[in-house]
Specification:
Aminopeptidase; 10-stranded mixed β-sheet; 277 residues; alpha+beta; 30% strand
């Protein structure tokens, strides 16, 4: 195998994303063919989108991968958004700040917590750049399939912050002991705090508890992705937790049809009032 591509989109395919990996020597040939194939698939689904919305084809790549960057530029994609891969290498368990009053933390229970976690995840990420509203039932089934078919699924590094008064989820920190593309590091794939609980230090407190669980499991090297222009101030939170920028990625995009954006691109309120803590 010298390369592969996968393309996916929400049910209303206003944003098709292509993940391409190809050996550098084959970038201009096999890589170009695979990326054109993915774009063609995206174009086939334009008719399934509302007539007045923008339709995008997107593909993410590390800024350091020069051949991959050149390939996307050669096919008419332009840089649209940047993201950092943040990293921390723990040599001791982190100190844990207190939780906000009325909040407790427990481990995810599968499958009892599945629907509530997915609903909370959707709600928490509505004000993040690039969000497209999913179909709840399909999203739940996708998460269920992911967990049920993961050979190393382990709920221990999946933490839920609970509002003691209501029993509702206030925040999530979900991690896997291996990043899918790099088993040498653990990966926090979801950290979010619901709006009513922000600006109380909950995000940082939950993330550090997540780090401790991973450290105790024997995984001191931890990474996560963050939008460099996070609408909710997430980058500041990760820096407070002791993380540093390890790699930078860029979302390249091509507009397949003009129209009004169908994904979240800004906040209805002042971003300074919506810091993700």
């Amino acid at each position: 195998m010298v390369g592969y591509v996968e393309a996916w989109a929400p049910k209303t395919p206003v944003k098709t994303e292509a993940w391409l990996r190809v050996l550098p020597a084959y970038a201009e040939t096999v890589g170009a063919y695979l990326l054109r194939w993915a774009e063609a698939r995206a174009r086939q689904r334009i008719a399934a989108c509302p007539p007045d919305v923008q339709v995008l084809f997107m593909s993410s790549v590390k800024t350091a991968d020069e051949s991959d960057v050149a390939l996307r530029k050669s096919l008419g994609l332009e840089p649209m958004r940047y993201a950092h891969l943040m990293r921390i290498d723990l040599d001791a368990p982190p100190e844990l700040p207190p939780l906000p009053e009325g909040i407790s933390v427990r481990t995810y229970r599968h499958p009892e917590d599945l629907a509530a976690v997915v609903e909370a995840d959707i709600e928490g990420f509505r004000d993040h750049w690039g969000f497209v509203e999913p179909v709840l039932e399909e999203e739940i089934e996708e998460w269920r399939h992911r967990f049920d078919t993961d050979d190393i699924f382990d709920p221990r590094p999946m933490l839920l912050a609970i509002d003691d008064a209501t029993g509702n989820i206030a925040a999530l920190a979900l991690a896997r002991q291996e990043r899918w593309s790099d088993p040498s590091v653990a990966y926090v794939y979801t950290l979010m705090t619901l709006k009513p609980y922000r600006r109380r230090g909950l995000g940082l407190a939950l993330l550090l508890r997540n780090f401790k669980v991973l450290y105790d499991m024997g995984h001191p090297n931890i990474v996560l992705h963050v939008d460099t222009e996070s609408l909710t101030g997430a980058t500041r939170l990760y820096e407070k937790a002791g993380m540093h920028i390890h790699e930078t990625y860029v979302d390249y995009a091509k507009e397949l049809r003009p129209g009004k954006p169908a994904m979240t691109v800004d906040l209805d309120t002042n971003p300074e009032n919506e810091e993700s803590e």
